[in-house]
């Protein structure tokens, strides 16, 4: 079967993730590549629990709203128009902090090991 190489972002497939956390796959296994690019919409209070990507960096580009981000011991509010660079091995978490949903693009250079320090993996993590 031929891989879909061009994805219309507005029609990207939604992958079940976490309550209040809508995850849309923009690029990954289905396109025949090792990296992962996603778009997410988080309802206020929803997000990802504290975890570490042991061998992979991660980038989050905040498009709308506000994320309450924890990077190691640092915690800050990150608004739309900002990019978050998360080096491999740094414990991190994020939650939509505003009265409105937050929207962001996420990028991982490949799917490696993720260790959860709080909570567990997302429902559809194996599908990305």
Protein architecture, described:
Helix content is 0%, strand content 50%. By secondary structure, the chain is mainly beta. It has a single domain (12-114), classed as Jelly Rolls (Sandwich). A hairpin with a 2-residue loop joins strand 6 (66-71) and strand 7. The radius of gyration is 14 Å and the shape is globular.
Number of strand elements: 11
Strand order of the largest sheet: 1-2-3-10-5-8
Count of helix runs:
0
CATH topology: Jelly Rolls
CATH superfamily membership? Jelly Rolls
CATH architecture: Sandwich
Radius of gyration: 14 Å
Mean pLDDT: 92
Distance between the termini: 18 Å
Provide the β-strand percentage band.
Answer: over 45%
Short description:
Helix content is 0%, strand content 50%.
Brief descriptors of the model:
5-stranded antiparallel β-sheet, mainly beta, 128 residues
Chart the SSEs and their pairings:
Elements: E1 14-18, E2 21-27, E3 36-42, E4 47-53, E5 58-64, E6 66-71, E7 74-79, E8 83-86, E9 92-96, E10 102-108, E11 114-116
Antiparallel strand pairs: 1-2, 2-3, 3-10, 4-9, 4-11, 5-8, 5-10, 6-7, 6-9
